[in-house]
């Protein structure tokens, strides 16, 4: 009995110990939350998502388990063990965030994420919003929410609201009900019933073998149901031209960029709400960061959806905001008045001959003067005027009286015939050069202009772009801003200041338009070496879900040539508006002939002096 009794006691003790061990295992693993067949059912659904959807998006996958309940954390880890046994296709980064572990979220980009959470608070614990907030390219979130059925609607709505608030466009939430139904929900930010709302919409169901819908992440922006997008812009022709429409009591836009965004609106079916921001004085308003009412600040505060209007891209702006492909690029060029390089009248008189020719001519003149001056000092009148006769023959004047000596006659004839080709060559070259409006070689780079002491002028927005260049950052006073937001006005300032050593820095397309419309297009010189290259585009709030769709559409329009055609037409319209009539242009410009007038006046003055000298000598003799 005792033995039997001891044996029974040992059996009871053994059974109790085994039950305790099993109970502890269940509590730690939580596989008793549901049957093993249900666990395998969910694991198959997850495996198909990973293999057929997530693995196609990226070669790496970030799996994050974040729960507030320890038992659910054990169950998620048990599910991962099942998955790992049946799937080894891509590299996995596994992050575990549990209430019994103090874990700092791993920073870094997480483009494709599988999140296993038991509540909205568990999603917040992952801190994945901060990890992806500074990236522009789209990311994908597949969230597995495991919660009691009566808690699922509330938690699901909170998660989808979080997705909408942080621009998670590709955001799916998978749930499993008590009846072992595996469903996937998502949201559409723009629907026929509401705009900017995150109502749960079922998109897929697992039937035990496959997902019923082939597309797990649907296109949500191809049809925006006329929802309004706020476009912050300003008057900057030909990119954006704003005209007040009194009939509808609002601003009406036109121009190259307005055409582009209107095409996108028709393609994606959204409406436009234009918000005009006034371009104030450069000292009071800045297009860059720093002004509380500037476009960058409004985008950072997410008060507007898009901002554009010849909005130039910079590294700082790209860091703060999201921008799709640049649809406009052009050089910034330096423009100056050619008047600064015009050869003066006195210099032009010397220009036709080289120095060696002038030296030989001077030597010949001195020889002839040396021949005639001795006889003039002896009072001999046979040379007919002495040294003045030599100068008169060189200038082509007739002799008042032939010298008596045959020696002097031969020398005079030789001097006259030798000077004829010189006079013909000199006069023809001189008048030809005057007609060409000869200039010295202008500068061909920004560094040369600065070395020559030129002062640059531009708009305030262009000035900030230029001050990022090393040669201007070292001397910021070498470039000054003009109180205007338009390059056209800067070029007009250059026109009104002909006598100052200044040059304008302006957009190349605007400069060509200005020169084409100017009454004196040849009076300006565009420096061959560009100052810088600028890119313009539309800006959106950081991580905006509009980025992917608009970037794709803009690339398609650019590849098909539409953007180039719209841009060319917009600049052509500016040419027609600003171009002066041909009747206002003079075919003979007296300013261009001023050099000829000065030369002729100088020659007449010299001839008059020679004539007066001959008269005085005649009276004296």
Automatic annotation (TrEMBL):
Gene3D superfamilies: Periplasmic binding protein-like II. Keywords: Cell membrane, Glycoprotein, Membrane, Receptor, Transmembrane, Transmembrane helix. The keyword Glycoprotein applies. The keyword Glycoprotein applies. It comes from the Eukaryota. The chain crosses the membrane at residues 346-371, 386-403, 595-617. Residues 33-222 form the Putative ionotropic receptor ligand binding domain. GO terms for biological process: detection of chemical stimulus. It is a multi-pass membrane protein. Coiled coil: none annotated. It holds the Pfam family LBD_receptor. InterPro entries: Insect_Ionotropic_Sensory_Rcpt, LBD_receptor. PANTHER family: IONOTROPIC RECEPTOR 20A-RELATED (PTHR42643), IONOTROPIC RECEPTOR 40A-RELATED (PTHR42643:SF30). This is Ionotropic receptor 7f. The gene is Ir7f.
């Amino acid at each position: 009995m005792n033995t039997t009794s001891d044996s029974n006691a040992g059996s009871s003790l053994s059974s109790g110990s085994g039950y305790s061990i099993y109970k502890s295992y269940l509590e730690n693993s939580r596989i008793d939350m549901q049957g093993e067949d249900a666990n395998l059912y969910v694991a198959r659904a997850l495996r198909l998502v990973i293999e057929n959807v997530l693995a196609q998006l990226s070669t790496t996958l970030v799996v994050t388990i974040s729960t507030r309940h320890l038992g659910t954390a054990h169950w998620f880890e048990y599910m991962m063990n099942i998955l790992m046994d049946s799937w080894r296709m891509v590299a996995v980064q596994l992050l575990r965030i549990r209430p019994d572990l103090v874990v700092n979220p791993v920073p870094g980009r997480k483009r494709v994420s599988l999140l296993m959470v038991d509540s909205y608070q568990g999603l917040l614990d992952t801190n994945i919003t901060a990890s992806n907030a500074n990236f522009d390219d789209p990311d994908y979130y597949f969230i597995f929410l495991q919660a009691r059925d009566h808690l699922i609607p509330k938690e699901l709505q909170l998660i989808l609201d979080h997705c909408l608030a942080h621009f998670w466009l590709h955001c799916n939430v998978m749930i499993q009900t008590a009846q072992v139904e595996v469903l996937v929900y998502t949201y559409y930010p723009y629907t026929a019933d509401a705009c900017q709302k995150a109502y749960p919409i079922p998109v897929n169901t697992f039937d035990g073998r496959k997902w019923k819908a082939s597309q797990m992440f649907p296109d949500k922006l191809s049809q925006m149901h006329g929802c309004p997008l706020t476009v912050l812009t300003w008057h900057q022709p030909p990119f954006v031209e704003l005209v007040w429409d009194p009939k509808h009591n609002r601003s009406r836009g036109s121009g190259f960029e307005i055409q582009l965004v209107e095409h996108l609106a028709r393609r994606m079916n959204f409406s436009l709400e234009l918000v005009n921001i006034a371009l104030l004085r450069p000292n009071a308003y800045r297009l860059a960061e720093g002004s509380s009412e500037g476009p960058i600040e409004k985008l950072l505060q997410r008060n507007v959806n898009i901002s554009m209007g010849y909005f130039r891209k910079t590294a700082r702006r790209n860091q703060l905001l999201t921008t799709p492909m640049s649809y406009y690029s052009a050089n910034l060029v330096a423009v100056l008045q050619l008047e600064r390089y015009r050869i003066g009248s006195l210099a032009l008189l010397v220009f036709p001959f080289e120095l060696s020719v002038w030296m030989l001519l001077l030597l010949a003149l001195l020889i002839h003067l040396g021949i005639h001056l001795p006889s003039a000092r002896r009072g001999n009148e046979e040379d007919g005027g002495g040294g003045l006769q030599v100068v008169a023959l060189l200038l082509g004047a007739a002799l008042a009286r032939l010298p008596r000596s045959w020696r002097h006659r031969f020398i005079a004839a030789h001097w006259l015939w030798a000077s004829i080709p010189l006079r013909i060559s000199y006069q023809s070259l001189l008048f030809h050069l005057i007609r060409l409006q000869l200039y010295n070689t202008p500068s061909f780079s920004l560094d040369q202009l600065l070395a020559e002491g030129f002062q640059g002028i531009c708009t305030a927005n262009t000035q900030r772009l230029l001050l990022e260049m090393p040669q201007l950052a070292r001397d910021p006073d070498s470039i000054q801003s003009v109180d205007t937001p338009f390059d056209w006005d800067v070029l007009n300032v250059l026109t009104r200041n002909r006598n100052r050593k200044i040059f304008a820095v302006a957009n190349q397309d605007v400069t060509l338009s200005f020169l084409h419309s100017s009454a004196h297009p040849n009076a300006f010189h565009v420096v061959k070496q560009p100052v810088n290259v600028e890119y313009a585009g539309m800006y959106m709030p950081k991580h905006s879900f509009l980025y992917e769709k608009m970037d794709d559409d803009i690339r398609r329009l650019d590849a098909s040539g539409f953007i180039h055609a719209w841009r060319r037409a917009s600049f052509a319209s500016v040419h027609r508006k600003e171009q002066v009539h041909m009747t206002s242009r003079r075919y003979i410009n007296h300013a261009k002939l001023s050099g000829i007038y000065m030369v002729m006046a100088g020659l007449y003055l010299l001839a008059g002096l020679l004539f007066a000298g001959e008269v005085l000598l005649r009276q004296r003799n």
